[in-house]
Amino acid sequence: MSKPMWSGRFTKTVDKIVNDYNSSLPFDCRMYKQDIRGSIAHSAMLAAQGIISEKDADDIRNGLLSIQEDIDSGKLTFDSDAEDIHMFIEAELTNRIGDAGKRLHTGRSRNDQVALDQRLYLVDESDEITKLLTDLIHNLRNIAIAHTKTYMPGYTHLQRAQPITYAHYLTAYIEMFRRDRERFEQAIKRANISPLGSGALAGTTYPLNRLMVAEQLNMDSVSLCSLDGVSDRDFAIEFASAASILMMHMSRMSEEIILYSSQEFKFYELDDAFSTGSSMMPQKKNPDVAELTRGKTGRVYGDLISLLVIMKGLPLTYNKDMQEVQESLFDVIDTIKAVLPPFIGMLKTMTIRKDNMEAAALGGFTNATDLADYLVRKDIPFRSTHEISGKLVHYCIEHNTSLEKLSLDEFRQFSELIDEDVYDAISLETCVNKRTLTGGPAPETVMEYLRSVE
């Protein structure tokens, strides 16, 4: 077992059981690029401030780049005895360049170092996630453009309520995912703040240039309180919160995909490449991508709760409990990146059964509200027209028919003011096309919205 960097205070070697229990290297090793990037920026600043020599800074930079190259190629493997990625890289650097490697940690603690690495890692990974979200939004927009006149029922309480279009339905999810993308962007903005220079908790007496380090790392600013700099994990919690809301939206859509692809609805036909079958029942075609997405939502929720519980009782500043933040944060990132590509693929390839959607929109008296509105235009109060329309629906149910199939004489049993124009007023096209208010289902309204989607 290699000698720990902090061993000067101790007279005994750490028990191997404790060392294994204490080590975070098995999971924080994924941050090696961020750790190296932060160390290069830190050493360059130390040299610029005259704290270490330019030669030492050059040796440190070249040594760190060689370590990264060897890790990337597989030539260098992680030492299982190392306590964490920071100690591993520093020990390897010192082995390669000698005493200059020991000067790297001047004015720095692992407390501010790990906070920096986590922030950099989150910013790096979020770039891919926001690109995937943009891809999802664009695919939904493209599908919607092709279905501005595909009629379907809108639901409340999972009961047919009013007719809409499939494009209008998709805009609801486009709006959800746009908000999700915005939440990630805002979370990353708050994560992109450098804590380096906070030291263990009280900064340092060395004349560091914290802004120089932040600028080298393309970070927006520096933390303004050293205590907060090392103890804050809000950025991880906020990211997990944004991820949980995203997963909730994807789970809601997955639930509807599962329902709408069933034989009871037949609105969708999932592509064979994004479905699975049964080992026993030959006829089965299962929506596994949607079901797994729905299931993995609980996993991300669990990670968010773990982060909140880890942090809820910690006194200032750093505590070893905070090591547990990393695994939950990494799992959130991995899950989101794993879920989005197959989810997008499923949406792109599934077939929309327009005939079944329209048949469903024609059933269930989804035009009953429009009948009531028609009577309002005959100068009857809405509460009265609501009652008349309800009685007509009851009449249709008793006679196994629908509103648009009633004769004019049948209509007039309930109101003498009903005329031939009622049939146009309660047609599917009119019910949808006249709802032109912003946010409504009229094709031109939806198209105007879709043209604005980026």
What does this structure look like?
The structure is a single chain. This protein has three domains: 7-106, Orthogonal Bundle (Fumarase C, Chain B, domain 1), CATH 1.10.275.10; 111-359, Up-down Bundle (Fumarase C, Chain A, domain 2), CATH 1.20.200; 364-452, Fumarase/aspartase (C-terminal domain) (Ribonucleotide Reductase Protein R1, domain 1), CATH 1.10.40. α4 crosses α5 (85-97) and α7 packs parallel to α13. It is elongated. The protein has helices at residues 16-22, 25-28, 32-48, 54-73, 85-97, 99-102, 110-145, 166-191, 210-216, 226-231, 234-260, 288-311, 324-349, 354-362, 368-376, 382-398, 408-412, 422-425, 428-433, 443-452, and strands at residues 151-156, 159-165, 193-194, 221-222, 268-269, 351-352. With 454 residues, it is mainly α. The strands form three sheets. The protein has a two-stranded antiparallel ribbon. Strands 3-4 form a two-stranded parallel ribbon.
Care to give the gist of this entry?
The chain is built from 20 helices and 6 strands. It is mainly alpha-helical and 454 residues long.
Number of helices: 20
Query: How many domain modules?
Result: 3
CATH architecture of the largest domain: Up-down Bundle
Strand content: under 5%
Q: Output the radius of gyration.
A: 31 Å
Largest sheet, in brief, is: 2 strands, antiparallel
Order of helices and strands: HHHHHHHEEHEHEHHEHHEHHHHHHH
